[in-house]
Amino acid sequence: MGAVLFIAAIFPGTLLPMSVYALMRSAVAVMLSPALESWIDKGDRLKVVRASIVGQRLAVGASCSIFWILYERKELGTKLRVGLFVVSILLACIEKLCSVLNLVSVERDCVVVILRDDDTARRILNARMRRIDLFCKLFGPLTISLIDGASTIVAIFVTLAMTCTSVLVEYFTIAAVFRMVLALQRTTTENSFTATEDNPERLQLAIETDRVSLRGMVDFALSATSNLLPLNSIPHYFQHPAFLPSISLSLLYFTVLSFSGQMITFLLAIGYTSYAVGAARAVSTIFELSATWIVPKVQQHIGAVRGGIWVLTWQMIWLAVGLAWFFASDESLTGNKIFAASGLVGAVILSRVGLWSFDLCAQSIVQEEVDE
């Protein structure tokens, strides 16, 4: 949320910069996230998670520096400002990739290994992890939005300070978890040796690529392309039992009716203050937190599949109500944009209970189908 507020302050009165920023960030995540698969599957788990933590925090810290320059030095030329904004987009892409790496490593790999044979404990752990995640998403953005209402510069420096502090906590606490759970300890060397030992063709390919020859260079290029765009894994994905819950979980976030960059920028553009946006985000997070208590009980009584259908219906109903309010209360009828948008905001807040509940239900189904 901090980046949204900062970009809105740097480029007031327009949704274009924020839209480009969000679009590029998401597009890079879609295109390059598959390349992370091999690292997660075969790499040292602790090194992978730590790399995601450090990479994410370094990208945020560098972005704060650029936002400070863009906001403070308004006399900079247009080309230089555009260039700095492009760099901030690249940093946002790195941050997003590291975020995906961290999410998949922890929730889709480590949690499955820790609680492989205990479905009840896994559901409880999923809910508690989501509860912590949502609380942090409440505390951080609310703090930044309140400070931004008084001073954007101070908000940028507070974001930088929070980033530097959190990286130290995360870096060492994740190591403590790995020391307590021996099953998580896996080294790159062990996996590489096993992979080549079990697959003579792969071993032969490795030997051939070591030769300084045209064929070796071609093989290396093909291997790199396969890692970047693993097209051969697509049929396996479509045939996997977790395909339907996985794709539905992806489509769940294919919307602007959430407190993401586009909606926040829209609210700021029509007259909402940073305080109002922060308050709405805080209320939304409180409703989202309720899902972490609701879902374990729902899954216990009716299962993850039926529970997911119920909470998804809840979400769709409230989004439909919000859109109806927004278009029925158009400015031409009420003369007030904020009145029309406020009804939509209220409905989106209520719909978030369904969104996060469905997220947890789908996550449970996917984890049950993931091989260790």
Automatic annotation (TrEMBL):
The chain crosses the membrane at residues 53-71, 83-104, 153-178, 251-272, 307-326, 338-358. GO terms for molecular function: iron ion transmembrane transporter activity. It comes from the Eukaryota. Its main location: membrane. InterPro entries: Ferroportin-1. It holds the Pfam family FPN1. It is a multi-pass membrane protein. It is found in: Membrane. GO terms for cellular component: membrane. Keywords: Ion transport, Membrane, Transmembrane, Transmembrane helix, Transport. Belongs to the ferroportin (FP) (TC 2.A.100) family. SLC40A subfamily. May be involved in iron transport and iron homeostasis. This is Solute carrier family 40 member. It comes from Sclerotinia nivalis. The lineage of its organism: Eukaryota, Fungi, Dikarya, Ascomycota, Pezizomycotina.
